[in-house]
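Input chain follows. Return structure tokens only.
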Amino acid sequence: MQRDFRTATGLALAASLVLVALSGCSQDYNDKRGKGDAPVSGKAGDNTPAEVFNFPDGFGNIATKCVGHGNRAYVTTNASAPSNVQIVEDSTCGGSR
């Protein structure tokens, strides 16, 4: 009887740990922290991949892609603060407005 109780307690504890770990991986978790994606009306956004330039550890990586017509976005990663974003005109991105 004692062994069954220990087994059941161990299984319940393991299940609780798995549930807590998985709840931290949800989209809702990132949205509440301000780190999720913004909603896109009609789910018709541009899902093409960005070109990523990796930098050595300790430096932020840079991602870039065309956004809109005639604009390019540059985004840096930053572990301790919000990312930096710059949008500049780029004639290689479908012409200027």
